[in-house]
């Protein structure tokens, strides 16, 4: 029979109800994966702060579904899983689970370890389930990662290229032991990796149940529709923007740069429902841990566009089809070996997101968003009273988010790369399991940038260290010299202010890249976190909202009068 006479299958007609069920069921699968991780992992950074993310990818490594946790993770996983799969091209079997963390194999920074499992059906790989988790310690110069003193990637910890943690359903115990023993907390790392393994396996099990109900053809049709829907959302957004070239700029805090600031420029060209995001003007890579691997940089760009969209249907790999992201190898946002990259996810990513949002503001000012508090984190390493080592990651008091046309910013959940996605740990559990006491924890009045829509408040935290021996603090962050910017006439929020308060002696400011800071027993750490930037002229804020802010203690009576122009009857 000639090809022209070969009968073709009738196109599948997918019922809208089936599409809705499959879409929500896949979302439920990713949520069950993160719940499995939460309930079985060991480290506080995971079981309390949930610094991990789960995705389902199609066979072409496009995101089909994701649990809403850490956007910067999810946007980077497609490239990571693609490179992991390519490393085992032709050598993948049902039951295999791959593992990697290497930034030069599609990873972000070394603490983020990704496990990925191919899902087989009808003789081929139809989907992938993957979970990336920030491990509490992966070796390197500084406990807990974020080694500000790192000058090359090998200073930052154990590099894991694509490996098979599980081959044909059998766990490779020797490999697990090798990885765990390269951590200062080997038992935690081993337990956390096994929790990740349980999570991806439960994801594959649930997908098998879904395929058993609907079959490969209907699932494939639903996947295509989900991806097409994401593309349509992004193209509609871009079609409604001002065509042409728009420029954005943000800065990073870097002591070796002129004035201590490193520019992050973005050029954005929008035309015909498509955008070209040009990052080639970014500075050359540096011998410091603020370089951002290509996968992380691309994820940051996607996060900015999804903020701007605000449409949940756009949360799929289809939205990336409308974007052309260009980088320059050897630059800060596309470094080459052996550049260190430890701060890329929470520092460089935030600056990139801000720069892209700044460019998008020129394309559609009414969608503009005030600046978010940047992430200023630290890890505190020491010993408990019984001599056991501990590493505590600071996830409390993350600052405020920016105001927008229709809403005030959210208070104290900051972090532009993952607002609210990593929960604040329990104060009670922190005090029960570490020699730490939270003496004060409250919202900080007048910390939100003033505006018609006010920026979200930052906070005040006082943490006392009650260990018997000195501890060591390693910082990594931004937001002291670069405060959250206001937009459309709104005012900036104040920057972060952190300090070490010894029992005897003067207060010592904590800088964003401080490393090896000695913390004596009885010392306190003061953290005043930034508030978000405001949107619009503060004098246009409705009187009733200003009065509410004063009554709730968010805005002082002086600021209400002097900044917002509130006149009282007194």
TrEMBL record:
| Superkingdom of this protein's organism | Bacteria
Q: Which InterPro entries match?
A: Hydantoinase_B, Oxoprolinase-like
Residue span(s) of domain Hydantoinase B/oxoprolinase: 16-538
A Pfam family hit: Hydantoinase_B
Specify the protein name: Hydantoinase B/oxoprolinase family protein
């Amino acid at each position: 029979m000639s090809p022209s006479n070969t009968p073709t299958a009738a196109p599948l007609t997918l019922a809208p109800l089936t599409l809705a069920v499959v879409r929500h069921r896949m979302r439920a699968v990713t949520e069950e994966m993160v719940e499995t991780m939460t309930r079985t992992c060991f480290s506080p950074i995971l079981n309390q702060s949930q610094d991990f993310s789960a995705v389902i990818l199609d066979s072409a490594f496009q995101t089909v579904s994701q649990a809403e946790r850490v956007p910067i993770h999810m946007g980077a996983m497609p490239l990571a899983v693609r490179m992991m799969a390519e490393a085992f091209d032709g050598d993948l079997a049902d039951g295999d689970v791959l593992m990697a963390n290497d930034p030069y194999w599609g990873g972000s920074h070394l603490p983020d370890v990704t496990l990925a499992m191919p899902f087989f059906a009808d003789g081929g790989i139809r989907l992938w389930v993957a979970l990336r988790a920030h491990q509490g310690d992966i070796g390197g110069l500084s406990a807990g990662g974020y080694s500000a003193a790192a000058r090359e990637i090998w200073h930052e910890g154990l590099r894991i290229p694509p490996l098979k943690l599980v081959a044909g359903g059998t766990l490779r115990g020797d490999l697990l032991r090798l990885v765990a023993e390269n951590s200062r907390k080997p038992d935690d790392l081993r337990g956390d990796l096994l929790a990740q393994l349980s999570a991806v396996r439960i994801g594959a099990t649930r997908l098998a149940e879904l395929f058993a109900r609907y079959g490969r053809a209907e699932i494939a049709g639903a996947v295509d529709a989900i991806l097409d829907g994401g593309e349509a959302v992004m193209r509609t957004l871009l079609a409604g923007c001002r065509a042409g070239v728009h420029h954005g700029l943000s800065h990073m805090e870097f002591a070796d740069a002129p004035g201590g600031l490193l520019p992050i420029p973005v050029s954005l060209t929008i035309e015909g429902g498509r955008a070209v995001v040009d990052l080639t003007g970014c500075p050359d890579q540096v011998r410091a841990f603020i370089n951002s691997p290509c996968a992380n940089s691309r994820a940051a760009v996607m996060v900015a566009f999804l903020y701007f969209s605000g449409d949940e249907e756009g949360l799929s790999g289809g939205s990336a089809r409308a974007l052309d992201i260009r980088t320059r190898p050897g630059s800060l946002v596309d470094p080459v070996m052996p550049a260190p990259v430890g701060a890329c996810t929470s520092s460089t990513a935030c600056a990139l997101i801000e720069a892209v949002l700044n460019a998008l503001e020129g394309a559609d000012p009414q969608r503009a968003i005030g600046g978010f508090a940047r992430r200023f984190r630290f890890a505190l390493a020491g010993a408990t009273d019984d001599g056991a080592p501990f590493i505590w990651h600071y996830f409390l008091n993350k600052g405020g988010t920016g105001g927008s046309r229709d809403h005030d910013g959210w208070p104290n959940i900051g972090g532009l790369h993952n607002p609210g996605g990593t929960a604040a740990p329990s104060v009670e559990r922190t005090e029960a399991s570490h020699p730490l006491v939270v003496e004060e924890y409250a919202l900080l009045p007048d910390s939100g940038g003033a505006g018609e829509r006010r920026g979200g408040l930052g906070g005040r935290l006082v943490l006392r260290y009650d260990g018997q021996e000195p501890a060591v603090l390693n910082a990594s962050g931004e937001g002291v010299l670069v405060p959250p910017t206001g937009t459309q006439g709104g005012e900036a929020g104040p920057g972060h202010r952190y300090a070490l308060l010894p029992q005897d002696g003067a207060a010592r400011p904590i800088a964003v890249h401080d490393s090896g800071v000695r913390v004596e027993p009885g010392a306190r750490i003061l953290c005043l976190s930034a508030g978000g930037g405001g949107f619009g002229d503060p004098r246009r804020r409705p009187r009733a909202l200003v009065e509410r802010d004063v009554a709730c203690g968010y805005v002082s009576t002086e600021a209400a009068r002097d900044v917002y122009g509130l006149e009282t009857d007194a």
